[in-house]
Amino acid sequence: MSLIGQGSNYYFVIVGKSDNPIFELEYTTKSTEKSSENRNLSQFIAHSSLDLIDESSFSANNSNMYLKVIDKFNEYYVTAFVCASSTVKFLLLHDANKIEDASLRAFFTDIYEIYCKFTLNTFYELHTPIRSSVFEKKALALAKKYLP
């Protein structure tokens, strides 16, 4: 994901119970060059938001799975979704600040559904990296559908 330039850029990650990345997806609405430096920056920003997600999801007033924007780093926003077990977190790093809340909620809800279906596979060990091209294609299709 190129964090510099025009267009909207997205970095989606599913984080496991040990704060390990289970699945990563980079998506951009414009063709830009990808670099490992930008990917590392995206990972760093997402990882630094994990404590804020824990604070928000464990607060007495919050029983929602969709946590909305929980962090901001320069022009990048981190939106989060916590699975029902509270051990798996979905994070979306984006530089588009005009995304409708309904679109983000629908994206997280649909990706949560395909994640739940994937974890029901008896050959998948929970909290290990997802290396399925089918899962990746479905996640990319959802990104194209919901993220402008």
UniProtKB/TrEMBL annotation:
Q: Where in the cell is it found?
A: Cytoplasm, Perinuclear region
- Signal peptide limits: none
CDD domains in alphabetical order: TRAPPC2_sedlin
InterPro entries to which the protein is assigned, alphabetical: Longin-like_dom_sf, Sedlin
Which keywords has UniProt assigned to this entry?
Answer: ER-Golgi transport, Transport
At the top level, the lineage of the source is Eukaryota
| One GO process term, biological-process aspect | endoplasmic reticulum to Golgi vesicle-mediated transport
SUPFAM superfamilies documented for this protein: SNARE-like (SSF64356)
Q: Which GO terms describe its cellular component?
A: perinuclear region of cytoplasm
The record, for PANTHER family, names:
TRAFFICKING PROTEIN PARTICLE COMPLEX SUBUNIT 2
Instruction: Write out the similarity annotation.
Output: Belongs to the TRAPP small subunits family. Sedlin subfamily.
This protein is called: Trafficking protein particle complex subunit
- Which species does the entry assign this protein to? Tetranychus urticae (Two-spotted spider mite)
